[in-house]
UniProtKB/TrEMBL annotation, chain A:
Descriptive protein name: Phosphate transport system permease protein
One Gene Ontology term, aspect cellular component: plasma membrane
One Gene Ontology biological process: phosphate ion transport
Described purpose of this protein according to its UniProt entry: Part of the binding-protein-dependent transport system for phosphate; probably responsible for the translocation of the substrate across the membrane.
Lineage start: Bacteria, Bacillati, Bacillota, Bacilli, Bacillales
Species of the source: Paenibacillus darwinianus
Family to which this protein belongs: Belongs to the binding-protein-dependent transport system permease family. CysTW subfamily.
TrEMBL record, chain B:
Protein name: Phosphate-binding protein
Signal peptide range: 1-18
Naturally occurring in which organism (per UniProt): Paenibacillus darwinianus
Membrane topology label: Lipid-anchor
GO molecular function, one term: phosphate ion binding
Domain of life of the native organism: Bacteria
Function as written in the Swiss-Prot or TrEMBL entry: Part of the ABC transporter complex PstSACB involved in phosphate import. Involved in the system for phosphate transport across the cytoplasmic membrane.
InterPro entries (UniProt xref): PBP_domain, Phos-bd, Phosphate_ABC_transporter
Family: Belongs to the PstS family.
Primary subcellular site in the record, as a coarse category: membrane
Keyword list, A-Z: Cell membrane, Lipoprotein, Membrane, Palmitate, Phosphate transport, Signal, Transport
The organism's taxonomic lineage, starting at the top: Bacteria, Bacillati, Bacillota, Bacilli, Bacillales
Assembly notes: The complex is composed of two ATP-binding proteins (PstB), two transmembrane proteins (PstC and PstA) and a solute-binding protein (PstS).
Record's GO cellular component terms: plasma membrane
Length: 300, 311
């Protein structure tokens, strides 16, 4: 009896089930479509430098000279690669200790004040437009470095300092979440054995959450790697490998934004910029891959 | 098993859709523009008043001038909508030659950027002249540089101000990127040759940043459009000639360039009216002067794409 009634009326939970299913499927389809068309666009543009314009791939990756307007045009992207890596890794080196300390403070030492005030303030940093960071870097950090160190002030060091502030929210937030999700039993066990608070943090909390902390660092580096505007304003943009941290150099992103609008779509100069973009995208894939590896190693 | 199958189907679907999507977009984009122009023509013939929509895109240096003039033009001709976009000279020239924009704004001659066959169909409308001055940090005590000295500085042969009569101070070059129209003009008319980027030189793509860096960095040298000159930077003479509106107009100061507005073939009625308006006294003696450009009408000399000067 109950069964026949159920069959005659449309079952609301089944309808809900289907609405949900179709909705999620459409969203995923749209997402995949966007991602694949982006990848396809950048790849087809970037590869045409090598396929249509016959630029040597090995020369592109290891060449030291970038002068797209000379005769013959030279496309050596190594200075940009070195610039990008050194700037973002140096930024992570500066930001990681700060981020970890902030996370430890917010979860272990003063959870109430930290969670309520510190975390929103640090997350606020993520909402500031990058042009503001760039301008602050150009007006404060560059003159400061120019006075203290030999050189022009602009360069990898200035870029790294600006980027370190920009990636601080990423590293701090991920570290805080990781530390907060640590089972209370671990810490209590440590205290029960007579360890002090610092011993517990240093010997138990940090080692256990290390993979998650590393994930934060890698995501921070990925963010720094892709940042264009702020870096472009303080790095100097000369396509050379610098002799010091305070000499003008370029990153992949700054080279792209500097010339993209002034080159004609389809020309060899423009295609070479898309090749840089492709390189940037491949590097981001590598970073994502590293994060996945770290997550798999996580003990939590 | 079922999941893998679903995933494969999803992927295949995505790829086919992505492929279609790409083509459709390109198609609809082109259609949109042609429709726009057609509508403009149709409207124009129906009544005497002008109507249609104009898309002007390209040079960011020229953008503020065109933008301001277009607002006034739209007030006077309510049937016309003009959209002014940036993107750079290269983008503007490419879009107008492909028919995606009605007007392509450019700092350089189309022949210098595009392939010969692409540039052939474009009609040049020169709306203003921009003068470019060599600027240095205010503490540099040099007032004049010759062409050869400039070449030696920008190619890195001279690296200290004392070699050209200044103090013992290292020279910092603040350059524009190789693709920039301002740099092309400076290299062509001030240096007479293309120079490679010197190690340690700075490159910035906005005039504001160039000015800030030249003004603050000791021993810095760069070049700026006349519109950006003020007491924060020191303007140098070129071969003994002062950089000013008069010296550009009478042809004694050679470092200047036209601001171009290109159309593909002859423009339609609305676009032509707007270009005429750009050359009218109202704009030439008003907005053009206000924004630091030199009116085309004031020029006593003319220059063609090869750089030949005629009176």
């Amino acid at each position: 009896m109950a069964q026949s009634v159920g069959k005659q009326q449309p079952k609301p939970h089944l309808r809900e089930e289907w609405v949900g299913r179709v909705y999620t499927f459409l969203c995923i389809l749209f997402l995949l479509l966007t991602i694949f068309s982006m990848v396809y666009f950048v790849a087809s543009k970037g590869l045409s430098t090598f396929i249509i314009n016959k630029v040597n791939l090995a020369g592109f990756l290891t060449g030291l000279k970038w002068s797209p307007d000379s005769e013959p045009p030279l496309f050596g992207a190594l200075p940009f690669l070195i610039g990008s890596f050194s700037t973002s890794i140096l930024a992570a080196v500066i930001a990681a200790p700060l981020g970890f300390c902030a996370a430890v403070f917010m979860t272990q030492i003063m959870p109430k004040f930290g969670r309520k005030i510190m975390q929103p303030v640090i997350e606020l940093l993520a909402g500031i437009p990058s042009v503001v960071y760039g301008f602050v870097g150009l007006s404060v950090i560059v003159p400061l470095f120019r006075d203290i160190f030999p050189g022009q002030g602009i360069g990898i060091a200035a870029g790294a300092v600006v980027l370190s502030i920009m990636i601080l929210p990423t590293i701090t937030t991920i570290a805080t979440d990781a530390l907060a999700s640590l089972p209370a039993g671990l810490k209590e066990g440590s205290y029960a054995l007579g360890a002090t608070r610092w011993q517990t943090i240093y010997r138990i909390v940090l080692p256990t959450t290390m993979p998650a902390l590393l994930t934060g660092i890698v995501l921070g580096i990925a963010r720094a790697f892709g940042e264009a505007l702020a870096v472009q304003m303080v790095i100097g943009n000369s396509p050379h490998i610098p002799r010091s941290l305070f000499e003008s150099t370029s990153t992949l992103t700054s080279a792209i934004t500097l010339s993209m609008g002034n080159t004609v779509m389809g020309s060899i100069q423009n295609n070479a910029l898309w090749s840089l973009a492709l390189l940037l995208m491949i590097m981001t894939f590598v970073f994502v891959f590293i994060v996945r590896m770290l997550e798999r190693r996580s003990k939590l | 098993m079922k999941k893998t199958l679903m995933l494969i189907i999803a992927l295949v679907l995505t790829f086919t859709l992505a492929a279609c999507g790409g083509k459709n977009n390109a198609g609809s984009g082109a259609n949109g523009t042609t429709n726009g122009t057609n509508a403009g023509n149709g409207g124009g013939s129906a009544d005497a008043g002008l109507s249609g929509s104009i898309l002007a895109t390209g040079s960011t240096a020229l953008q503020p001038l065109v933008d301001q003039a277009s607002k006034r033009f739209m007030e006077q001709n309510s049937g016309v909508t003009i959209q002014v976009q940036g993107g750079g000279s290269g983008t503007g020239l490419a879009q107008v030659s492909q028919g995606q924009a009605n007007i392509g704004n450019s700092d350089v001659f189309a022949e210098e950027k595009l392939e010969a066959d692409q540039a052939k169909g474009l009609v040049d409308h020169q709306v203003a002249v921009v003068g470019i001055a060599t600027v240095v940090n205010p503490e540099v005590n040099v007032d004049n540089l010759t062409k050869q000295q400039l070449i030696d500085i920008f190619s890195g042969k001279i690296a200290n101000w004392k070699e050209v009569g200044g103090n013992d101070q290292n020279i910092t070059i603040v350059n524009r990127p190789a693709s920039s129209g301002t740099r092309a003009t400076f290299e062509k008319y001030a240096l007479g040759e293309k120079v490679a980027d010197v190690k340690g030189s700075i490159q910035e793509d906005s005039s504001g940043t160039v000015k800030k860096l030249v003004g603050e960095t000791p021993g810095a040298i760069g070049y700026l459009g006349f519109a950006y000159l003020d007491d924060k930077v020191k303007v140098l003479k070129y071969e003994g000639v002062e950089a000013s509106e008069e010296t550009v107009a009478n042809g004694t100061y050679p470092v200047w360039a036209y601001e171009h507005m290109y159309t593909k073939g002859e423009p339609d009625a609305a676009t032509k009216a707007f270009l005429d308006y750009m050359l009218s006294d109202e704009v030439q003696n008003g907005d053009v002067v206000d924004m630091g450009y030199i009116p085309v009408s004031k020029m006593q000399v003319k220059r063609d794409v090869e750089g030949n000067i005629s009176k």
